[in-house]
Amino acid sequence: MDKNTKMIVGAVIAIVVLWGGYALMGKQSVPATNEPIKIGVATFLSGDLAALGENIVNTAQLAVDDINAKGGINGRQIQIIAEDAKCDSKTGLSAVSKLVNTDNVKYIVGGMCSNGTIAAAPVANEHNVVLMTPVTGGRNVDEAGEYIFRTANSDLLAGRNIAEAMAKKGYKKVGVIAETTEYTIDIKKSFEQRANELGLTVAVAEEFQPNTTDFRTIAAKIKGENLEAVLVASQTGISGGNLIKQMKSLGINAPVFSDFLLVLNGDVKKILGSFEGIYFADPSYNADNAGLKDFLAAYKVKYGKEPVVPFHSAATYDDVQLLATAIKAVGDDSVKVHDWLKANVKSYKGFMGTYSIDQNGNSDLGFTVKVVKEGVATGI
Question: Domain Leucine-binding protein, which positions (predicted)?
């Protein structure tokens, strides 16, 4: 082989080797670290609670816009992907499954009802997906799994705080009427337990199916027992509004206590005319926080209206910020983010106030019982 031939062969071999190397590299999975970090939002975007879900998505997006404008997380932008979870277990599971298996998200803000969160929890736990809920307060979420976190106020504390408020007002003979959903039954059970501890007599304890409109039997029982106060717990507030209206039609003047959803629903206000005199468990959050006030003002500018539920906005904002802080600290690794959240969220100062997350992933935030006086919610 002459010198020229050897040079040609050598060049060909070099080209083949280089081409093979590039081909091999093309087949390898090379992380695209400049791609956005995806945060899923699974919440109620249709049905009776759609306005609340829209509030959660808008808040998450506005929080992300602020982070992205400041350079993102370690140079990467954040992308919000929203899915409709409605307020049922089947749709909640479907929404989270789609986010995890199709969109490949590793972090989810789960603004769902308790049933949806519980149904979706196994998917999040199996795939090491961090799911943080700013709204789900059900007792069963306490033990939903290693990757489920809650910055929402616990429903168990709502029932307890209402019983304590009744005792503070001097009421002795009381009642509780609850819709048969996980959310409201949790409130009912915790109320009964705390009422008994405080020496109150729970003379009427009734449950009703969702979408019930005829409460004449229950209202008659309340009237017959001559209760001093009654707790009405309903999922959307609509049924509760119908019950209260029928109580009034029978001349029942016992003070009504409720969960916060009743006094937030404009349709309930149409049913009752006003919320005057109604006591309700208002989720504790730092309403006077200057940063929260600025954020709510920015929300109004961007969306042309105020948040439907300010504390949902506060909790959602905190969820996004906690995820962003954790990812910045340990990288885009959901296992490490999980560990960071469990270890570091202690006396955290956020829009919800100062709180800690325990080893079950739950915050220690409670409720403040207020009453509507002259159209304004005030402490008792």
Answer: 36-361
